Every structure is written in structure tokens, then in C-alpha cells.
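Dear support,

We are seeing what looks like truncated structure output for some complexes. This example has two components. We would appreciate it if you could run it in full and send us the complete C-alpha cell output so we can diff it against ours.
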Amino acid sequence: MVNLLQKISFILNDRLVSTSVPAGMLVLDFLRKEERLTGTKEGCKEGDCGACSVIFGELNEDGTVGYTPMTACLMPMGELEGKHVVTIEGLNMEKLSPVQNAMVDCGGSQCGYCTPGFVVSMTAGLMEPRVPLDKEGVLYAISGNLCRCTGYRSIIEAGVQAVDSLASRLNGPDRIKELCEAEALPSYFMTIPERLAELKPAVSDGSKIDTDPIYLGGGTDLYVQRGDEIPELPVDLLKKGEAPAPVYTEDGMLVLDARMSFEDFAMDRLVQESIPQVKDYNLLIASWPVRTRATLAGNICNASPIADMTCLLLALETELTISNAGRLRTLPLKDFFLGYKRLNKKPEEQVVRISFPVCKPQESVNWEKVSKRTWLDIATVNSAARIEVGEGVFLSAGFALGGVAATPLYLTEASSYLSGKTFEPSTVLEMIDVALEEFQPISDVRGSADYKRLLARQLLIAHFEKLFKDELKMEEIYAAL
Amino acid sequence: MRHCDSALHVTGRSQYIDDVPAPAGMLHGAVFGSPVAHGLIRKIDVLAAREVPGVRGVVLYGDIPGDPMIGALKNDEPLFAKDEVLFMGQPLALIVAETPESARRAVKACSALIDELPVITCPREAFEKSELLQEPRVFQKGDVETSWSECTNIVEGTIDLAGQEHLYLETNRARAIPREDGQMSVYSSTQSPSATQKHVAGVLGLPMHKVEIDVKRLGGGFGGKEDQATHWACMAAVAARLFSVPVQIVLNRVDDMRMTGKRHPYIQDYKIGLDDEGKILAYEIHHYQNSGAYMDLSAPVLERTVLHSSNAYAIPNVKIHAAACRTNLPPNTAYRGFGGPQGMFPLEVAIEKAALKMGVSADWIQSRNLISDGYVMHYGQEQEACNMQRTWDEAMEEFDVEGVRARVEAFNAENKMLKKGFAMMPVCFGISFTKTFLNQGSSLVHVYTDGSVSVTTGGIEMGQGISSNMIVICSRVFGIPPERIKSNSTNTTRIANISPSAASATTDLNGNATILACREILEGMQKVAAKEFGCSPDDIMIKNAVVHCFGEPTEMTWEQLVLKTYFSRVQLMAHGFYTPPNVSYDPAKNEGRPFHYYTYGTCMIEVTVDCLRGTYKLDASRIVHDLGRTIIPTVDRGQIEGGLAQGIGWVTLEELTFNDDGRLTSHALSTYKAPDAEFMPSEMQLKLLENVENPGGPLGSKAVGEPPFMYGIAAFFAIRNAIAAYSDFHKNEKIVRSPVTPEQVLLQLYPDFASAPVSSDPPQAGQTV
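Here is the complete output from our reference environment:
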């Protein structure tokens, strides 16, 4: 057995920790077992309940520290190197914080098992200036937290009460400082930027692991599938080290670092220009902490038939750049999937870049998803569309569907059918008929074959409802359903 | 006063079993569950498991020192299967290892050779094959058969009502610590410490006094730990005995979901008859309960289904058929409402269908049939202090139901692809264990010489706030601030023969016992004070921790009086025992007065359905609830809203899917979805009935744990009402299925969507993950 132990140094709450543990070990296990920080609870170990929420701090180039919530059950220890990790214990002060106080006051805690996770998530929401200081922001912050006792009204009210009590003091450039001054965070947070800057990255001992490592990006699916094994295996942490490159445009293409997280994707200005509604889609995908970890390439290479981002990228005519020890090749995303979980990629190859054409002015993009629960659920069927319209005709289109085949599906026939056809309801209905010939869903835990087929049809129509409600006579389409 | 543990909870300082530092040398157990749902065991192969690094041993059926059989009502369930397996995931062996990871790795190295037998997952099939856990029973009031001819409106149909996963955030767990002289201490996440004690003693072959069960708190229970926490406590205890070291078992989420029972699914055939005035004249219902593989609590759950089959309605002729059908699923068990929701649901379906046939709204029928004082329920209990009509009337008025109806109709006329719907749900829920003997509560109150107070009862703190309620009760009786009182862990050494924390009755039973214990101590203290002030003990009272004489404050504080009482050699601890008067029930005849009293309420839920996508949004829930006099408002409100959330989840999102070979396919939180913050109604309105006294509850309170669950049923019908505004799905609906998932909604919106031609290709493997 190879020696997987790795020296890792980071700040845990207010304390410098240097430890030797396997890089693939879960932060959750480390916190509970090695550090006895038992406020972080295990509820599901797959990122679906938020009981193990922690806050992860990273030194920005400008010397500040940016904080994001994470589920400790999907987070490898190896990534903590040089970072700040905050557990519920690290938020405690002599008095209760405004969030803690509001949770007590509003009755937001009953059995208490999920409570630290909610407090951590709400606090993370306050620490991220992007999250609005209102009910919507509270919901955003707790999008990954489940409670089985309260029915949530009291928790939401607590979040709003905390936000309201602080909002007037949170308008400057340094949010962390403001929160410390408002006694919403312990004052040691003020010392963290300096202490992180002083933390020298550990020197690798140079020993090379001779077994092939597992590539681990966000780990949000890998840990769910293989959580018991990964701590025992050599891992190559793609998120460790150099941060993902920023998005840029080149020859009319938007170029993305494959390690980019879902959250960064949705918040990127260039991406938003091409996909105006991307922030709305974001809410329908996983939860804030999971989106913060999940990577675009991970979503693609996991090859799940209902992969949300893959579906969107398929409709955008995305191209992958794949590296084999530095030798690059490119491949259209629609040619990447060979069969169920089979990829046009050798194990040692890595997807490094993702690019798609910048949206033209006459082009519209839409993405639809239906799952049992609206937030933090896996799609039953998802669908994406890119539709180009000009002079009363459809110029070109790309449609993708997830959840109806063994792979994420690009609808080749339906997409080409629209080209050059008149922009009218009957064309849409004809296109739908063509599309329905292109897939044959199976029944599984997410839905019956009949349902998925019907839902796929509905979502294809939903694209037109969203994009052309005023231009197309939708009633004619509805009447034909 | 807030929930007394909440400051600990919000700081992450409250301890659950696995948060307490492990004793030296503690080992960890993981369970090897059956890979098939039904079969004869030929061999359980654990050789490879024993070789896994860190493994210290394996526990099998033959290693159990005492009685290997356990079970809530009858000992029909082996702790580990020996000859036959009856459900998938049924424990076959416990691996004991130095770490939980080693133990789980070793579980993967286990295998079993099992000759498979046919698997039954459908209760009707089980019924037809006479796979029954008890004789089917029929209860009758009036004469249904002769009444049908008087009914001008008769409808009948079939219902497929799904179960529900408890989804307590803290999975089942137990830590057993061997003590001297063969004794065993077990820290268990159980709602039934005495049942756990009895079974641990049983499997170890010990008298009960050598086994101590201690429970500080549960990370949620909801009935799921009433009987099914026992298994893991027994396994940990057996392993601790065999290895002579502490052993802990913490189920991971998937094991907890696969191995433990859930809310009972039912298949139901109903028939209802009404006259043209909307009066329900007759109702007949067949309940085929999907009981799972063993008895567990299926019989009493079915009993409550029978008792609540007429819910809040006065129906002169009722006939109820009830069968507990054995299937190859994990033994289904207690879950908030305890069969009550399954009793009430089909009647609401019947009313919905009757309303459709009569061209009236369901609430028109509901409102014409509500019970009132003097009405004798179908099991013989008369309604007294019945607030059913009051909650209904206040709901109609307070929530402007007629206005809502008009707005919904106008909205639906204007919008083609968005439809709104609403529904009302009246609830009458009986409070008491229907097993009459369980209606007993105990409390042990200690006043220490510094004036601090400790209270221990048989009640388990699982989030519902029993500890806080006990503190408030002590505080009110003694006249001292709540801060002076601490609620302790529930412990079988301090309280004997504890009834489960269940049936919504925990505060009632243990709170009344606490009042008695406090009063006993107080009486002694009053005598001591009376001597001091030269008055009668009745003239002494304590207010704000100050001794009052003739209603006037004295110089003497609570602390001083406590010391004086101690030095006077008068007792400062007392045990209180309470049992509600006038409760009796003969289940064989289904006759008697099973309930101490009833809780009443009415709920309205409003929804919007997206008719293109088949999704829905819950717009509002509005409740009028009869709570008596609330003990702690935030705690009670939390129970109502939490119950509502689970009830809504049960009939909407929460879908347990078993495939034909008995495998649970929604076995993780990625596939089993419970409500989250976004899902709940954006508006949640609650109005408590004012000026209601309840002599049966401590401090005039009413039990609140279970009744609000059934409010959630309104969501089911609200969604269907919205769908009906778009499509005529009722026409072709052969079986009413719950939950109404987005799948059900879309298929009902487009009932004519042609089924896809069957592909000749073999199905592709797993399209989901």
C-alpha cells in the first residue's frame, strides 16, 4: 500500500493546524474524529442535507480572504493546504451572534441536529457580499440545508431577523471587518488574511506515487459514488494549486477553464452576457455549497445522463480541449459520449478547457429543468435550447435533452429541422414530432418512461414559451398538446 | 421562554451519542444486511470480512447470549436472521472493527448464499395469499348495507397510498458500555428506553435491572425510533458483551433507509354514499396495510387507522375492514400520526370524488358533516368540548375562503397554463395511547440545597420540546425562574417502565406527573414556611423565587426556604406518577373511550400548478388550531409547522420506490426528497383558537405533536383541484395515487398523451446517476 499521508497546514477556526493525513480524507471525518469538533454533523455524507456545513476561506490576490460555504462531507483534506476552515465552533463568541440569537428567538431549532449547519450557512451568506441582505438571500444561503423538524418558517424568519439587525452596518467594502465590528463574527477573523499570507505552502517530499491517481475536481459526485474508497487511494486534486484561469474570448469563442465551478460560471460577467438567465438556472442546480465545489469538467466527465451543465453546454455547440500530458486535442462535446458512462477519452487524459461560441444578437438561449423538488434535486429531465431567428425564419438551433437516454443527448434531427423554416407555431410542433423520434427513455427512480417522454416534449415547448412568448402564438401550440 | 436547548444547538455544543468522547478501546459495528428480500439462508460467508485490517470479529445469530428474538408487540423478529430472510437489508451479521471505516469495508467483503423465494411488495397480493400478521377485522356502526339504497350519490374507488421515510437528521445509533458484574449501559437514540432496556436484557440474558438505557436527546425521531432503535442498541450490547469493550453502531444514511421500517403504505377500497343535501349517510373502507416483514407496531397503527377512519365527520353508517398484510419490505412502524393519516386520507378522496359527481365543492360536503358535541364516534366515544365546527368557522371567516374561491376561479379563467387550487382539511385527532396501559407518566424532581432543580421524566427530548415544557411546568408550580431548573437525560435507572415518547402524549403524561412531584415537594416546603411565619401552609406561595405569605412578599427567598426545608429534614425530592382518568378501550370490540380528549383544527392550502411543466408551488397554508392553553408558544408553533411540513411532504414529494424484488431504490437523500425551505408555502398563517381550556392537559395545554401532520393532506387536494381546472383527469383516473409528485401532475394534466411505442432494444443500464 502506498503511503498516502501528506503534510497539510491550514488555519482551523483560530488555530494553526499541521497534520499528516491522506489527501483524499474527508474534512468531515477529520473535524469530528481527529479534532473532536462535533458541532459539524454527519447527516447524509453526500452533500444533500448541509448538517456538515463549514466555511472555507481563501486568500485573494488583493490580500483579503474570500469565504464560501462547503459541505465538509464532499471536501478532501488535501485542499485545505494554506486555507482557512471555519466550523460552528469557530463562529462562537462569548455572546450569541445575531444569527445564533435569532435562531433561538424565532424557534428555528428543535432537535438541533441540523442547526449548526443552518447557522454556518446563514453566516456564510452574510460573509459573501454578493448575497442579498433579505429573505431571498437567506434562502440562497440555506439552499443546501435540510431540517426535518421546523417546517422552515421559523428558520427563514430567523435569517431575516439577523439580516435586518445587521443590514445598516454592512455597506462598506470590507464585509468581514464589518461583521467583526457588529459582533457577528469573532474578531480573530481580522487576523486571518495576515496569518494565511504567512502560511508557506508545504514542500512536497518529491516522492511520486506510482499508481494512477484519481482525478478529483469538486468531488461532489465522486465522493457520493466512492466515498468509502477515496481516502485510501492516491488522488490528484485538480482544484489544488493554481486557481482556474479567468474566462476570455478568442475567435468568437468563450473559453473557460474546465475546473471552473458552477457558481463561478453563473456569476461570470462574460458568461452572463452570452447566457443572460444563467443566474436563474443556477438556483435550480444543486445548492450553493455544492455549486461552489462542482466543476464543469467534472459534470461532463461524470457523464451522467441528467448532468445539468452538460445539457446546457451541449446546446451551445461546446468544444472540449483535452490534454494528454500536455498534448492537446479538441472535440465537440456532442461526440464525447459513447454510451452510458463511456467517454471518448483515455483515463490519463484530462479535459482542460471548454469553449462555446459567444451568443450572437439574434440568438437566444434557454435551459429548463424539472425535478421532484425545485432546489437541490437531480433533474428528471432537463433541456437546453439555442435558437437563432431572423426575418421570420428560424436560422439555426441546437437542442439538448437530459434524462431520456444513456447519455446527455444532443437532438441532431430536431436541431437541424428548424433551420430555414418559417417562424410560426406549426414549425415548432413539427420540430417536436421530429424530436420525439430521437429518444426512448427508460423508467427508473426519477420517473416512468412515459413521464420522461411527455416531460421532454413539454420542456422543448417551454423553451419557446420562455423565449418567444410575445412573438409566437403560444396558444396554438398549447391547443395542440 | 424558548426551547431550552436552543442556545446549545446554535453553538454546536449539544451532544448526541457520537459527539460524546469515546471511551478507551471502543470498537465500531457495521451491519451486513441481506442482499435479497426473501429466501432461505444456506450460508453467510464472513471469512473474507474477518481478514479485513482492523476487524476484531463478527457477531451472528448463534453468538447472541440470550433470547435472539425481539419485537415491540411480539418477539417475532430475530436480531440477526438465521434460517430465513424476509426483507432486503435484514441484518445477517454485525462486523466489529477498530474503526467504522474498517467495519464498513468488511461488510462489503461479506456474502450470503440464499435460496430466493417469491417476493411480495403489494399488500393486496399479500392479503390474497393470506400473508397476514393477524386476523382481518371488521368494525361496523349502523348498517352500511341497507343504507346504500337511501343514498342518491354513491362513489367508490381504489387508493394507492404511499409510505414515508422518517428522515430524522440523526440516523439510528447506540453506544453500549459493559459495566461490572455483567451489567450493561447503553446510550441509545431511542424513543422507548424501557422497550430498549427490555430487549437488551433479553438478548443478553440479563434481568432488566442490570441494563441501563440513557437518552439525552434525539436528532429527530418522528416514530422511527419508537421501536426500531432497539435493534442497534441490542447489537451494540451483544458485541460489547462478547468483546468486553464499549461498542458503538452508527448507521450511515443508506443503511438507515434500507434497514428500517417507515410509515405504512396502504391500498384502500372506499365506497361513500350521500343524500342530495350533502349528508354522508354511509362509508365503507377496506384498509390493506402494507405491514412489512414483521409485526413491529403494525397492529396498533392499524387500530388508529380504524379509529380515525371517519376523521371529523358524523357518519351514521360506517363499516371498516382492516388487514395487516405481511410483505417483504422492512417492518413498517410508527410515524407521526400512527395510522391516523392513513385513516383520514381515503375519506377525503371519497369526498372529493363525491363532490365531483354531485357538482359541488368538496368543502361544501365537508362543512355539512362535521362532528359536534354529543356525537358518538363509531367506536363509542362521545364528543365533549368539541371545537371542530369552531375551527372550521373561524378558518372560513379569518381566511376569507369565499374570497379565495372567487380569486382562484378568476385567475383560472384568465390563465391558460397556470392554474390555482385550494383545499380544506378538517382534523379531529384523539389523544392517548390506544393501548390503554401505556397511558402512564413518571417524573422525578430533585431540589438541591442551593435551590437548583433537576427534573427527570420518562419523556424523550427529540426536538419536540418536552424538556422545555417540563422546565416551564416546574417553574410555574414552584414559582421560580426557568433558569433554576435543568431537565435531565431520560434514564431507566431513574425512571422505571417508561412508555414510549409517542402518541403526542409525552408532555401530557410526564407533565402531569411533574406537576404532582413538584406539588409534593412544595407542600413540604409550605409547611416549613408556615411554621416560620405562623400561618397555614395554604397561605404560603412562592412567586419569582420569593416566599409570599397571605399574598405579600416576605424576606425569605426560594433558596433560603429550600435550605430551611433541608435542615428541617423534610424531603426535597419526589416522584410523581400520572395516568389519565377515564380512558379505556377494548380493541377486540373496537369499543370504549380510547381517548382522553381530542385535538381539533382546520387547514387551508393554496397552490399554483404550472400546466406546461407539471410543477407546482405551494402559495399558502392557513391553519386554525385548537391548542388549549399553550405552554411555550414558539415550541408549540414549531410542532404545528413541522407537522404540517411532514404532512405536505408525505402527499407531494416524498416517494419511496421499491422495485419488484423488494429493493428500495430511493434509498438516499439524492433520490428521496423531503421539503426544503424553498418548497414550503411562501405564506404560513397560524391562528390559535382563543379561550380554550383543556382540563386534561398540564397547565390547560393540548397535545400537539401529531394532529398538525394531517393538515398537509390539504396540499394533495389543492394540487388536484388546480389540475382539474386544466384537464379532465378524473374521468380516466382508475386509482388515486399519493404522493402527487410532479410526475403524477404532468400525467394527469395530459392524460391522453400517447404512450411511447415499446422499444425493441434492451433497456440501457442506469440512465440516472
